[in-house]
Design goal:
Elements lengths: L3 E5 L3 H13 L3 E5 L2 H10 L4 E5 L7 H11 L5 E6 L5 H7 L3 E4 L4 H22 L13 H36 L1 H18 L1
Parallel strand pairs: 1-2, 1-3, 3-4, 4-5
Length: about 200
């Protein structure tokens, strides 16, 4: 399953460039061009990571996206993307896990994102919390029940399938057994000898 990232930035050039870079690197990327749109998307899908600009439609838009990500039940990693670096204490107080300063070399950006995802998943595992990667829609109660039902149907079908396979195998073995072949060949020869 591809890891899904929500990228929130009001600069279209940044959105499109980062989206292309991340998708080429194997991520599934959704974009939002404002803090409001980003908060909305956080409620409609699950993400393993949220990368948000700090200043968008207002100075607090990025902080609002971070708060919304922190309140999401699927616990995404959160990175603050900014062209105006702030002190470590400030972005950590906002609730971000990492600060990414733009512009940034592509290789460094990808390394930092990968490192953040790995460390965040390890942190969640240590706390006994499942991440967005393991709480995907495939693991909702309704889907779990459907999977359990499908497994029980397979289990009930298994014995009849085995019986049929065993019968077919027995027939094939009976047809190819040397005893039957030799007796089948001898019978016509005996009939020919009797006629002569």
């Amino acid at each position: 399953m591809k890891r899904r990232i929500l990228l929130v930035d009001d600069e279209v050039a940044v959105l499109l460039t980062m989206k292309a870079i991340l998708e080429i690197s194997g991520f599934e990327v959704d974009t939002a061009a404002s803090g409001r749109e980003g908060k909305s998307k956080l409620h409609t899908r699950e993400y393993q990571m949220v990368i948000t600009d700090m200043r968008m439609e207002n100075d607090e838009a990025g902080v609002e996206v971070i708060r919304a990500a922190r309140s999401a039940q699927y616990h995404p990693a959160v990175a603050l993307l900014t062209a105006f670096p702030v002190a470590d204490e400030d972005w950590q107080e906002m609730g971000a896990d990492k600060m990414l300063v733009k512009p940034m070399h592509v290789r460094i950006l990808l390394e930092q994102i990968e490192h953040l995802l790995t460390s965040h998943e390890a942190k969640l595992a240590a706390m006994g919390i499942s991440s967005g990667a393991t709480t995907s829609a495939a693991k909702t109660p309704a889907k779990k029940a459907a999977r359990t039902t499908a497994k029980s149907k397979k289990a009930t079908k298994a014995p009849s399938v085995r019986k049929k396979a065993a019968k077919k195998t027995a027939k094939v073995i009976a047809k190819k057994s040397p005893a039957k072949k030799s007796s089948a060949k001898k019978a016509p020869l005996k009939a020919v000898r009797k006629r002569v």
